[in-house]
Design brief:
Largest sheet: 2 strands, parallel
Strand order of the largest sheet: 1-2
Strand content: 15-25%
Mean pLDDT: 74
Number of strands: 4
CATH superfamily: NAD(P)-binding Rossmann-like Domain
């Protein structure tokens, strides 16, 4: 089982109403395919532009870190599980 699916199962088991960027999406409360929809727009729509309480990044893709703080609400939690091979830069000001 992939890390992403494990995160989805955790969220669903706890009754989280959320969105997952997952091509399979069998275990997520709401799923969006990143090839056809943009995850930031879906999160904004579902949260009235507030942001998610918890965001899991499990892919390890450096692309996933671009604008990742835009998905998290003020005071929310970003859980980094995926490990990129190369260093990834963070916009610390965006995390505030």
């Amino acid at each position: 089982m992939s890390l992403g699916r494990s995160c989805n199962k955790w969220a669903v088991a706890r009754g989280v109403n959320g969105v997952s960027e997952d091509a399979v999406g069998r275990h997520s409360a709401t799923t969006t395919n990143g090839k056809t929809k943009k995850l930031p727009e879906e999160v904004a729509k579902l949260t009235n532009n507030w942001g998610a309480d918890v965001v899991f990044e499990a892919s390890g893709s450096p692309k996933a870190y671009d604008g990742i703080f835009d998905l998290v609400r003020p005071g929310g939690c970003l859980v980094l599980i995926g490990r990129p091979i190369d260093p990834v830069a963070f916009d610390v000001a965006a995390a505030a």
